[in-house]
Amino acid sequence: MIRGRRIVVTSVAAGVALACSALLAPVALAVPRTESMSDGLALLKARDHLAIQRRLDVLAALTRRVDAAIHLAASDRSTLLSQYSAADGGLRALDEKIQSDSTVAAVRADQTRIVTDYHVYVLVVPKTHIVIAADRISYIASEFASLVSKLQAAIDEAKADEKNTTAAQKAFDDMQAKVQDAMNVTAGIPGRVLPLEASGYPDNRSTLLGARSDLVTARTDLRAARADVVKVIQALS
């Protein structure tokens, strides 16, 4: 009799446990999952909005930089500002698209475009700095042209006075060569860099690196040219 009661009690306990498990399991899984998915979607959208806003801020800063670059060629300035405007409009439209997406999958798909469609940090920013630097170096190199006639006249005058002008002439010739090299190196940089597009990155990164290397060479040439001017003056004094 006792054994029979134990079996009944055990059966009832097992049934209660099974019933409780069946009742509790859907509640524990369904409700938090729905809330989590909603919160996750909102969080993704907020993060993407912030990422886009940061890039818009960078574009605005670049616009101010270009407007203030006094030695930037007018055509290069116009091209850069046009590119900024296009990127700004595209990013804003993308932000609207993301905010209207109804699923996490859709947001994640659009999320990648923030980077791949624009590459603001790795392409637009360095492109801007390179073009501004190239035009500034070209301007400085052209300024040396105003010294050429004056220095040569001074050398000729010293030579007419039967002074030894060998050192002065050598430094002068080297100055002219260095300035010409700097102009040759930087002349084609804007034309190589400005057409670069986000769709071509990272393959076109080599063009950016090559332009940076050319800028280093041009700066070195101009420093040497400036040192040559000092040598000419010292040789004639």
Looking at this protein, list some descriptive labels:
237 residues, 2 domains, mainly alpha, 87% helix, 7 helices, disordered N terminus, 0% strand
What does this structure look like?
It is a single chain. Mean pLDDT is 87; it is low at 1-35. It contains 7 helices and no strands. It has 237 residues and is an all-alpha fold. The protein is rod-shaped and about 90 Å long. It has 2 domains: 41-116; 120-236. Helix 1 runs antiparallel to helix 2 (74-100), helix 1 runs parallel beside helix 4 (120-160) and helix 2 packs antiparallel against helix 3.
Report a brief summary of the structure.
This protein has about 240 residues and is mainly alpha-helical. The protein has helices at about 1-70, 75-100, 105-115, 120-160, 165-185, 190-195, 205-235.
Question: What's the total count of β strands?
Answer: 0
Structural category: mainly alpha
Amino-to-carboxy terminus distance: 129 Å
- Report the β-strand fraction as a percent range: under 5%
Mean of residue pLDDT? 87
Rg, Cα atoms, Å? 35 Å
Oligomer classification = single chain
Shape: rod-shaped
Q: Largest beta sheet, briefly?
A: none
Our count of domains comes out at 2
Instruction: Name the poorly predicted regions.
Output: 1-35
Give me the strand/helix succession.
HHHHHHH
Number of helical regions = 7
Question: Considering DSSP H and I runs of 4 or more, what fraction of the residues is helical?
Answer: over 70%
